[in-house]
What does this fold into?
Amino acid sequence: MEKISLLQQERAKYRPKLPAIFTGEGSVLAVERGKTESVDDQETVRTLFSKTYGLPLISFEPSEKISLEPVNVGVILSGGQAPGGHNVISGLFDGLKALNPENRLYGFLGGPGGLVENKYRELTADMINTYRNTGGFDIIGSGRTKLEKEEQFDKGLENLKALGIKALVIIGGDDSNTNAGILAEYYQKIDAGVQVIGCPKTIDGDLKNEMIEVSFGFDTATKVYSELIGNIARDALSAKKYWHFIKLMGRSASHIALECGLKTQPNITLISEEVEAKGMTLGDIVDEIAGTIAKRAEKGKHFGIVLIPEGLIEFIPEMKALIGELNDVIAHRSSELDSKDNPDEKRSLVSSMLSEKAGALYVSLPEDIADQLIMDRDPHGNVQVSRIETEKLLIEMVGEKLKALKEKGMYTGKFSAQNHFFGYEGRCAAPSNFDADYAYALGYTASALIGTGKTGYMSSVRNLTAPASKWIAGGVPLTMMMNIERRHGEDKPVIRKALVDLKGKPFEMLKKHRDQWAVETCYVYPGPIQYFGPEDVTDQRSETLTLEHE
Amino acid sequence: MEKISLLQQERAKYRPKLPAIFTGEGSVLAVERGKTESVDDQETVRTLFSKTYGLPLISFEPSEKISLEPVNVGVILSGGQAPGGHNVISGLFDGLKALNPENRLYGFLGGPGGLVENKYRELTADMINTYRNTGGFDIIGSGRTKLEKEEQFDKGLENLKALGIKALVIIGGDDSNTNAGILAEYYQKIDAGVQVIGCPKTIDGDLKNEMIEVSFGFDTATKVYSELIGNIARDALSAKKYWHFIKLMGRSASHIALECGLKTQPNITLISEEVEAKGMTLGDIVDEIAGTIAKRAEKGKHFGIVLIPEGLIEFIPEMKALIGELNDVIAHRSSELDSKDNPDEKRSLVSSMLSEKAGALYVSLPEDIADQLIMDRDPHGNVQVSRIETEKLLIEMVGEKLKALKEKGMYTGKFSAQNHFFGYEGRCAAPSNFDADYAYALGYTASALIGTGKTGYMSSVRNLTAPASKWIAGGVPLTMMMNIERRHGEDKPVIRKALVDLKGKPFEMLKKHRDQWAVETCYVYPGPIQYFGPEDVTDQRSETLTLEHE
It folds into this structure.
């Protein structure tokens, strides 16, 4: 028999909280509120989405019990895991069963690819029950196949029809929801008779906008990372001998680093968006970190915590340029490169192939990083930016800088560092109460959008800083979040990614306190996620959400 | 004002549970139970500890309220952090105040060095209250200075006398408690009038024996690591594309890896003690891992979890021999080595300096590891074994092995791996209920040993699988745990380190299930430590403790 942890056994009993609209006896009706426009490039987006552009925002109001014909629904988990995925599915399941106990839910396996390849499983009550309030996407698995071609859509439709599926829910990030919008438009255009509804998922926190306050998963993942950062900070303060450089997942945006920074108050929190806005060089960043280390050393504090967003490198303008040039060099002159065995010779050959500025930067990098940039290539032959160990790069360069400062008598400490990278540790944690409730409500709302006949919508639950009963469920047209962006040399309609707003309250809060946090020691230790006990502990909202919406 | 997390605020209210003997109205009397002998080398140990050898085991019985003269006590945190350190100190404080409200407690700062350098702080009720049930050693800091020379003892005594301190409590691992025993003997011999009491601390779990069931900190640290391993396992199962190689702190013994393995049921749990006992080579270990990966690939499972104890390398007999030879080479022929700049040439020079067997092993290592072995040296000029990234070494070698298997048609998968190292994440976590109670009870017991006039004892709390009220408090003579071992070319009395017992029940349990866990997917997700809620969740004992004592 499968062994289940004690916590999981107890947590299975948790009943996620729902917005009041869904806890009444009756049914709900959709209320339409005016026409919408896309966030930018309205004309182009309107032309591309002739069927689903300009749909109204949807909210719900209570109605008498309505009896609906039974319907079969499909669900897909797309992209990286995020805590709460299983609760979206159980909310969807419960919502569908409340509409009509005959409704059936099918899960496509291994992500969007499962739809095209017709890999699926019917999700029964017994199965759903063993996954309630658990982490992971393992109930049906996830995958990164992109649904973007008409032949995929057609093949998918064939499979949907064979199962009698009339509505499809796609749980994913900005890309997957963009594709959900395109699929909704296509099925509408060919009169396929299949509704498509999206759900906002990503730990990165970069799928948010005026109508979507946060994606599910961000709350839990940042709580896990903050637990670990707090523990490490307490260790640093106790042992008083290490600087810990901690890289945090979140490929483009720095929301995760910012949230963890606000929760734990480390000495330094780097924000990629700020680095880019200020046009900072790698040297500037190194100087800033070394400066703080020297200042703390003056006060006898030879320890500290630095948070580094995963995407940092690509936001440093000169590094971005260097990587672009290196990609060209690799693409066009790799046989010359491969002819050199001696690493020193190879590095000077590379630098001679670059522009003066990029060449100078290249030779200033630590040797192992310079080698790594050339050696590790992705399947398209490009530099593998995500493989660059930014945390080690910074440690090495900061160490060199401090040596130089020491020679000038401007630094007297001993610099010892440890590096960490947190990502996989948080993506499949069991959801916090907030994410358990929010994800469940998103799934339940998706069932209501299906029940009221909508397509081309993202499930939306707002007013999230209030207690769950006061949350506002509804639907946001997917086209409303789109604009046109250049991708791989083509103009494409995409849901706009939310980067850290340098004028927003969360970043303002960091800015206000960071000079003090840098030099003094103001660590906060959030501890692990609690599922039982005082509500102020179990139901805490993220700092980001609270600052943005309260 | 200092910001405290919500969880910490709520957790501050927790009242640690105590053995019944300490919850009565009256005082306690020490009961002596027979003479003791050291675990080995009795004659030598007896000679070295003429004053404190053979002391009886101590237990307590209730007595009428006894009034004692006020006494000043000192406390020291020694070595690496472990969850519960602050609770030992608060238990000691509360116990001392119960003996006599006039009693005072002084903490020496930054570890044993604080005693010698006379750096201290009086620990008042207000101060203690802000540290109850928190992680870290930051109330007084810790350090790794070893108290082993008479001049340190004399200097320390001077400082103790100046503060009127009559008893000293040293909270540390096997080495620190060995030194506590030596200090107790010395102060007894010179009639210093200072009692010395030790407390068993270490997350590594290697300070245990017939009389000490476990050290405090092991429970919490392994719970934190298991939370993360479970989350990563769930991610592996959801994404189905990575093998995660996870190294776990625990320098010599593999108790941490074993405990986490039993809690989370990963595919592979390496146990250093078994590797040594079987005389396994690095190649054997690589073959075993690659074999399991190939078996899972046959079933379409291209993912998995491998747990690696930090000390593994030193338990592989051929690696131990290689490192010994490398240390000789570095010590005697470093100028020759330094003359080579080209890494290929340097590696072949090194291998020519080694015995045939060691040379062959050296050149079979991945190049970056071979370079690292020569480059990174500790302050004594030795190979920095702890810097070897075993998890990356294994990934690289397993990858090569799988390539070879693929060429022979014996492996058909795609091997992608991620590496992790967990250590600092768990050492300063807020203690679990078990560690909060146990550490507090150890501190309280230390106060009782002081009150009953004992010296040369380790505070002991047994029967730990029972509810706390049934725990048995007492004292174990430090000499009873000692034997003679060769250290740095000298025979020394030391407390015997407890390695994983290959005939013990915890390892038996792993052995019984590991073939199934390897090929099937039987992950368990323990989730984060819970401080509130159902008692079976909050008060769970470690698998190791339960299997050894129930």
User: Anything to note?
Assistant: Chain A touches chain B through 59 residues (CB under 8 Å). The radius of gyration of chain A is 25 Å. The mean pLDDT of chain A is 95.
